[in-house]
Specification:
Residues 64-393 form the Protein kinase domain. The protein is α+β, with helices and mostly antiparallel strands. The chain has helices at residues 8-13, 18-26, 31-37, 146-152, 188-197, 204-223, 274-277, 286-301, 314-322, 327-333, 351-358, 364-373, 384-388, 394-397, 421-427; strands spanning 44-53, 58-72, 77-85, 112-113, 128-137, 161-168, 175-182, 186-187, 226-227, 236-239, 244-247, 254-255. The strands form 3 sheets. It has a 6-stranded antiparallel β-barrel with strand order 1-2-3-5-7-6. Strands 8-10-11 form a 3-stranded antiparallel β-sheet. A hairpin with a 6-residue loop joins strand 6 (161-168) and strand 7 (175-182). Helix 6 (204-223) runs antiparallel to helix 8. It binds adenosine-5'-diphosphate (ADP) and magnesium ion (MG). Adenosine-5'-diphosphate is lined by residues 70-71, 73-76, 78, 132, 134, 159, 181-184, 187, 234-235, 237, 248-249, 251.
Length: 438
């Protein structure tokens, strides 16, 4: 932290890297000039020899220019940035395939030498982006499969990974993994909050389009056996101008194998499926569907539907809507469970009436959909394709269906049914209901 060109704001926001320092040493004789030309606070620019292009799997020398912090989660920092290929160094493409920081190792995908792949067609000074760069510590006791999974998934409703690189921080000497993804302007948490502040909810047509895209992303992920394991509004990116939705944050995601136990302490409290709350270790991708139900409910209510004050009372919040869990539920989920089973009914009406009371302002088809998702038994809980085929989405299929993005008087068309062959295969018998010409 001795370089005078680094502003205090930058010091607080970003981890410095060795390459950045080298660059500054390099220009030391222009020190005053550099200071004058120094980018404004928060802008952080550096060049790395081994930035991997996800599509081509080649490592290239690139300059990264970070200019805005856009997110801070439990594990990572997310910044907005632009990147450009840097061919200034003649040897830049003859570097070793093995990145010194181990990028690509254990991913199961070879990382080749960047023979200018992708760079050739671009002018040297052409900035690419904007992107969102997520930075997380590379090696921790907690195993993240985020890079591994983001490298294999390719879907219109899943955030796409463009580049990745490892970088050592000069502050703590730790290696950080950097994931360069496409950037979306908002997420569902911000959208729900925005409308709540003006005493509205997200418009119904938007909710339908968002929910459909969320279910479509799950159809695809679950088709690979991958469970996201942290579905919640802040992990669902949206673009309010186009009503597009993409799931992000695969930091907890995992491919679940039948009969292989997984930790039950995943998902954020309000969005945890009941089987996770009671400590089930042989759960399925249906835990994500529960999360989807909670997200949809939150869009209608403007606040989380099950706000447990403590981990133990999360099940109580669920029982207040669904009634006491059946005994078979505990036995099937975790026979060792010794916590409160909430066997006494916490309301006097029927479950249907309970739903209607809580979602008093919501349309009946939305309530019907939620009643098929928010159920204790994961096996009875709706699958992604069953969600997608629900009449709640019929409106989207109409040729006349158009949406007006927030603050816009120009309607836009959404292409929500452009399924791939793989998706049609996964839809199976539901294929016919979802074949829509748009
Ligand atoms: N690709 C992206 N585009 C725009 N914003 C993003 C993107 N990825 C993440 N963010 C923002 O950063 C926040 C944290 O990122 P996330 O991947 O969820 O990290 P964490 O594991 O720390 O929760 C998100 O809630 C979102 O607001
Ligand atoms: Mg997150």
């Amino acid at each position: 932290m001795t370089q005078s060109t680094e502003t205090p704001a930058t010091q607080n926001l970003y981890h410095r890297d060795p390459s950045h320092q080298q660059q500054q040493h390099h220009h030391h004789h222009h020190h005053h000039q550099v200071q004058v030309q120094a980018p404004p606070a928060q802008v952080h620019e550096y060049t790395l020899p081994q930035v991997v292009n996800n599509k081509t799997s080649t490592a290239n020398r690139m300059t990264i220019r970070e200019y805005k912090k856009i997110g801070e989660g439990a594990f990572g920092t997310v910044v907005e940035a632009v990147l450009r290929y840097d061919n200034s160094e003649p040897n830049s493409n003859i570097s070793s395939t093995t990145s010194s920081s181990g990028v690509g190792v254990g991913v199961g995908v070879g990382v080749g030498v960047g023979a200018g792949a992708g760079a050739g067609a671009l002018a040297k000074d052409e900035w690419l982006g904007p992107f969102a760069i997520k930075r997380v510590p590379a090696q921790t006791e907690y195993k993240s499969r985020e890079l591994e999974i983001l490298r294999v998934v390719q879907h219109p409703n899943i955030v796409s990974l463009r580049f990745f690189f490892d970088k050592k921080s000069s502050i703590d000497n730790k290696v950080y993994q950097n994931l360069v993804m496409e950037c979306l302007p908002s997420n569902l948490q911000s959208e729900i909050k925005f409308y709540r502040q003006s005493k509205y909810t997200i418009p119904y047509p938007h909710m339908k389009a968002y929910t459909f895209q969320l279910a479509r992303a799950m159809l695809y992920l679950h088709g690979f056996g991958i469970s996201h394991r942290d579905i919640k509004p802040s992990n669902v990116l949206v673009d309010p101008a186009t009503i597009r939705l993409k799931i992000c944050d695969f930091g907890s995601a995992k491919k679940l194998e039948p009969n292989q136990p997984s930790v039950s302490y995943i998902c954020s409290r309000y969005y945890r499926a009941p089987e996770l709350i009671v400590g089930c270790s042989l759960y399925t991708t249906k835990i994500d569907i529960w999360g989807l139900g909670c997200v949809v409910a939150e869009m209608f209510l403007g606040k989380p539907i099950f706000q447990g004050q403590a981990p133990e009372s999360q099940l109580k919040e669920i029982a207040k809507l669904l009634g006491p869990p059946p005994n078979t539920f505990f036995f099937k989920s975790n026979p060792q469970y010794r916590g409160n089973m909430y066997t006494t009914k916490l309301f006097s009406c029927s479950v249907e009436e309970r739903f209607s009371n809580i979602f008093s302002n919501s349309p009946p088809d939305a309530i019907d959909l939620l009643m098929k998702i928010l159920v204790y038994d994961p096996e009875s809980r709706a699958s992604p394709r069953r969600v997608m085929a629900h009449p709640f989405f019929d409106e989207l299929k109409s040729k006349e269906f158009k949406v007006y993005p927030r603050g816009s008087s120009t309607a836009i068309e959404l292409k929500l049914f452009n399924f791939s062959e793989f998706e049609y295969e996964l839809l199976g018998p539901y294929k016919e209901v979802l074949k829509v010409q748009q």
